[in-house]
Amino acid sequence: MEDGMAKSKSPDENRQIILDVVRTLFLEKGYDQTSLTDIISQLGGLTKGVVYHHFPSKGAILDALIGDADENLLSKEWPGNCAIEKIQYALITSLSDVEKLSFLQASQITLKSPSILAQQYELSYSLLIPKFQEVVRQGVTDGSISTDFPEEIAELLVVYFNLIIGLRITELSPDDFLRKILFLKKLFESMKAPIISDKILALASDLSTKIGGQINETTH
Predict the structure, then answer these.
(1) Sign of the CA dihedral 43, 12, 65, 90?
(2) Confidence at residue 108, expressed as pLDDT on a 0 to 100 scale
């Protein structure tokens, strides 16, 4: 009966079941400690063939989980009275995404893999940067951002947060992490784009403390 139920689901439903199961396993056991056998045993009748139909490797599942977190942010309407508040909402949401940060921590070695780096690069340029460019241009129109370089500000914001900081977040010391956020704050303020608010700084400070604690746990 269980096999029949599993087979009756659509491919999209099967994919989501796999992601939900693996999300839980990665967070509980870590990436390296989760085996394909662990995954299949939790799938309620879905076979190894179904898993490989959707994901050619365990790394591909991690790609999807990290990518889905970013795409989920893009699918939402960013609230705010002006463009700068909308950008701040997006940054606060990303910095508050404990689940994504946990994936990064659990799989920090794997994040050096070319496939994940390529996926994050493609996501940045195909989806994130166009979205941020659109909102920065709104800021020029509504007066919350005063710049002649809206496209470049959006590129710098996404590349720095998503690639320079994001993929290396578990390698950075708390001081390094905070210094990079302060650098962005001063840089954007000098360009009349006060994007990094006190709330974002406070959140970054809290996050840097958590990062430091996680690094200490993994090295002892």
Answers:
(1) negative
(2) 57
| Rounded-to-integer distance, Cα 77 and Cα 90, Å | 10
pLDDT of amino acid 157: 94
Helices (H), 30-149: 36-41, 48-54, 58-75, 83-95, 98-106, 114-123, 129-142
Q: What is the mean pLDDT of each successive set of 10 residues along the chain, which is 220 residues long?
A: 54 89 82 86 88 87 76 82 96 77 59 67 84 95 94 93 76 86 94 93 82 48
CA–CA distance, 158 with 132 (Å, rounded to integer): 8
Of 7, 179, 161, the residue nearest 88 (C-alpha): 161
Which among 179, 178, 116, 183 has a CA at the least distance from the CA of 156?
A: 183
Token digits for 76? 């939402």
User: What structural domains does the chain harbor?
Assistant: 2-54 (1.10.10), 58-218 (1.10.357)
For residue 196, what is the DSSP state? S
CB 105 within 8 A of CB 60: no
Contacts of 145 (CB under 8 A, 6+ apart): 83, 84, 136, 139, 153, 192, 193, 195
Distant-in-sequence, close-in-space partners of 80: CB < 8 Å, separation ≥ 6? 86, 87, 88, 89
Q: How many residues comprise the chain?
A: 220
Provide the pLDDT for residue 194.
94
